[in-house]
Each structure stands twice: as C-alpha cells, then as structure tokens.
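cron nightly-structures :: item 1 of 1
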Amino acid sequence: MHSEQPLQGVAPAAPFFNLLGKSVGVLTSVMLTALVLLVSLEVFLRAVFGYSLGFVEEVTGYLVVALTLFGAAMAVRANSLFQVQVVFDAFPYSVKRLLGAVFALLAIAICAVLAWKTFDLVGSSFSRGKFAPTVLRTPLWIPQTLLPLGFVVIGIFLVEHLLILLRMKDGDQ
C-alpha cells in the first residue's frame, strides 16, 4: 500500500485527481514563496529603516493556515500522512488494506463534517459583515473560506486513496 512514488490517481478519475494535485502544488508553491518574501521584506524594513508594513502578520497568518491545510492534502495524496510505518508493516496485506479503507472512510466523514461546519462559519461571517480588527480590516469570510476549501481538498484526496485501495489486488503492494 505504501509506495515510493506518489499516487497518480485512479482511472477514469485520474485526470481530475492529477489536475487537482498539480493545481494545489502550484498554489502552495506560490503561497510559500509569498510567505517567505513578505517575512523577509518585513525583517529587512524593520532592521534597516525601522519601518513595518503593518499587514504582514495578518497575511502571513492566513498563508500559514492555507499551507497547513493544503500541505496536509498533498501529504494524504502522497500516502505519507497519519501512518506509523513500523506498526503498519507488521500486518498482513489484507489487514493493511482493510485498515487503510476504514481510516479513509472515517477521515472522509470527519472532513465532510469539518467542511460543512466551517462553511457555516463563512456564511455567518459573510451575512453579519464581520471584519478582522486589523489594519487591513479583511472581511472575515475571505480567510475563513480557506478552511472548508482545505477540508474539501483533503477529503477529495482521501476518496482517491480509498478508490486506489479498493482497486488494488493482493499482489499490488
């Protein structure tokens, strides 16, 4: 079940999973680059000119949340999250497959609930017109949207993982 290569989707849905994986990879690369540049610029401006941009802490906080969620999604896709390999390897293949499927189903259910509840939070913030008490006065629904999106992407990659497990035969380790 654990392979050296990242999972590459399940036919006929493989193109969808692969496109989503590539898109999330590019998006997280851009976000990480922005995070590093913003923090570096802020450090430089404070050290050299004694000046702060003021908004960097807020924006980098949003980026860290996004990177955490989308990074977890990519780890799920690469089959490298939530697994103690030493313990897992001690089981026969059929037990590994069953445990993987049970884990995937439970995790999909948890992601669905978290996506639903955080989507409610976004709707509440939007309808109430809530803003962050910061320099940017960001409407809270904007950064909060990262939460349900992240949980949905994690859930999609868990579905991909489950489909792969269900299609594997005893010899396909």
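cron nightly-structures :: done
The helical segments are 14-49, 56-77, 85-88, 93-128, 141-144, 146-167.
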